[in-house]
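Notebook, p. 212. Picked up where the previous page left off. The plan for this session was modest: take the two constructs that came back from the sequencing core last week, fold each one, and keep the raw output in the notebook itself so nobody has to go hunting through shared drives later. Recording the first one now, exactly as returned: residue sequence, then the structure token string.
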Amino acid sequence: MPPADNSHGGAYDAGVKPFEEIVQFIADAAGAERLSAFRPSAAAESRVSELLAKQQEETLTPKEREELQLFVQLDHVMSLAKARAQARHGTRRLMKA
């Protein structure tokens, strides 16, 4: 179920989680091709690797733990957006065939 469109005064659907609205917005705005091509920068990947290594060693500071949790949340949002965009793109292709 798509989230309510609140940009034009639509009623808020209390059953929709706020992050789902963001996921849907990203999926709609970026599209399947752009989302599937997206990759984090080398610097971001390096930082995540560093944080994961520190987590394994149990040497993360509280601030680093928060940073790692944010990376995990953002990765989850992007994964959901990619899946929704690909599903929608596949549905459109089937409708055109």
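Okay, moving on. Second construct, recorded in the same format:
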Amino acid sequence: MRLVFTLSAFLMLSICSSAQKITGIWRGYFSSSNGLYREGIQEEMYKYEIQIDQQPNNGLKGVTYSYKSTVFYGKASFQGIYNVKTKTIILKENSLIDLKIGDKSEPCLMTCYLDYSKMGKLEVLQGTFISINIKDKGDCGNGKIYLERVPDSDFEKEAFLSKKNSSPNKSATKKVAKPIAPNPKPTITNKANTLTNKIKPKIPNLKPATPSTKDLLQEQNNTKVEEPPVQPHIKREHIETQGREKRTVPVPKVLQERENKLVKTIVVDEENIQVDLFDNGTIDNDTISVFHNNKQIIKHGRLAFNPISIKIKCSTEDNLHELVVVAENLGEIPPNTALMVITAGKKRYEVFLTSNESRNAKVVIEFIPKH
């Protein structure tokens, strides 16, 4: 009987030790399909951050942050439970700690139903939520949530996180403080002194040869003075040849074998362009490669809430920029979909892209300067 009890206790301890700890900071977004927080607006997307403190009994407590620039800001406390076997979380916001909302907005409290998953080093909490109005307890809408574990917060860390992070720092500082003054240094200096003493008698023999070398160097410098006017022409030739090479970049195989469907042509008058690529809709591990004028600039980039950013420099000599998005996979929900946001000065353009294993999505940016 004792053996059975000890074995069962050992198994329970091993299960508890191998259980995933979710204490930490999780950040991403939630999207509402019923106009949450604003009337008449659908598919609104807000940033969402959770700071979780996992208890020994797998109960959860902590705070949530809901925000979207200065229009909406809310901090709430929550309680929840983590099921270790199914890796599911139920998280319920209890009360608001801080609130800053727009004129037509009403505060709501959310109840989240999340699933934990891990892909390599990436840890994800995703699922759905429902919400109720604080004032009248009415339905406030529902939607989807996507969060990733991150090391730092957009806000201040809660006390339970700062305490856990402070203890390893102390031990780390103690370990670093030990190797302050190694002994080999004085022995090296002594050897260096003896070496210099040995070399000193040989130095005078070399001094008579120095005047002739100086004269030779002066003669060489005098001859080199005539060369600088030629150098600018050489650089211009290099620039011209580099420009020709860029224009004659061979078409990659993937662009030859697949159809390159032109989605949109955008005319800009700004020299500096920024292109951001997001996953359009649910984050389902869509992966893409991007080609700029037949040159690959993004390889196997994963579309998510955080953008894949590209910067383009336009000029009158280089005024056409062709961007081709290639689907490396179809994600969990085919086809591969992306949202391209092009920012040119104060102007912003949104292009929805769809690609698959036989068709790429192409966007052309044409630069026409202001007159």
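Notes on construct two before I forget. The longest helix spans residues 159-177.
Flagging for discussion at group meeting.
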